[in-house]
Amino acid sequence: MKFTAGQIAEILNGTVEGDEDVVVSDLAKIEEGGKGSLTFLANPKYTHYIYSTKSSITIVNQDFVATNELSTTLIRVENAYKAFSQLLEYYNQVKNHKTGVENPVFISESAEYGENLYMGAFSYLGEKAKIGDNVKIYPNVYIGDNVSIGNNTILFTGARIYSETKIGNSCVINSGVVIGADGFGFTPNEQGEYNKVPQIGNVVIEDNVDIGPGTTIDRATMGSTIIKKGVKLDNQIQIAHNVTIGENTVIAAQTGVAGSTKIGKNCIIGGQVGIAGHLIIGDNVKIQAQSGISRNVKDNETLQGSPALNYADFNKSYVYFKNLPKIAERLNTVEKRIDNE
Fold first, then answer.
1. What's 182's DSSP letter?
2. Active-site residue, selected from the candidate residues 48, 97, 241, 278
């Protein structure tokens, strides 16, 4: 896709300083840009690059003052960083704007779908599934029976949505995501073998949820596993049966949440965190990467370590346990002196 400086300025409500007809077709960092690329300058540490950048167009703040000659066309905006983010979103929408049903696909006769559907080749739409308007279903996506998906949601290649799942509006489901597979439920019998406990619940994904590639969200044993609106899940996360994740909580990659745990709203959870089952995690909680959570957590706590401690207590303790070999050696020396007296 190609845009002129004038077109971009119109999108961003900015003003052009230079050649309004210069064309760009690529986005780049300011230090790496070449002819035909668009970049931006927001951080003052990168100001020196604007005088050497080969990018055809650079987005800058209104108050930017050049102290040397420039070869790049400027687009002045109120906030360069926000404007560039806005442009990325616009670019993404244009790039992903597809409609129509490719062949071959399977659409059940009892399924319903809205306007401007895109359904890529080799996708499957099950019995009584209901799909909203402007939904994009990329190739090789499986959507099971009785699934409902709201408006403006995107399901990328290879996503698997099991039966009874409910997905809201404006969600992004990335490649390899599995939603609604059976929860991990087994019970031992008298022979020491494990019998499967039927998982008859579902998964509910509310509006504006992003789910990264390879993440799995299990259906509830009974009732629903619930991901509330605004939640952002990174890659390769495991959410077990009957978990609830509160509004606008973000979770980084490779985190696992065991069954029936309730996580509050506005939490920030780092990568490779392990959270045990049947816990209650409060609102506004921050959990540092690689922490292990084995207890209930109150609102506004910040935790680190495994098992996790209060963040400040962890840092105080770290001063000591990083020196444990030295401390042990000193204790041994003291014991030997006492024994020799």
1. P
2. 241
The total of other beta-carbon atoms located within 10 Å of residue 283's CB is 16
The predicted model gives 178-205 an average pLDDT of 93
> Selecting from 3.40.50.970, 3.40.1390.10, 3.40.50.720, 1.10.10.10, what CATH number does the domain 3-95 have?
3.40.1390.10
Euclidean distance between CA atoms 83 and 18, whole angstroms: 18
DSSP 3-state assignment of 218?
strand
Helices and strands in the chain, H and E counts = 4, 40
Q: Where are the domains of the chain?
A: 3-95, 101-315
Q: Catalytic: 278?
A: no
pTM for the whole thing?
0.81
At residue 321, does pLDDT exceed 70? no
- Are 224 and 204 in contact by the 8 Å Cβ rule? The answer is yes
Pair of tokens at residue 257 = 């949440």
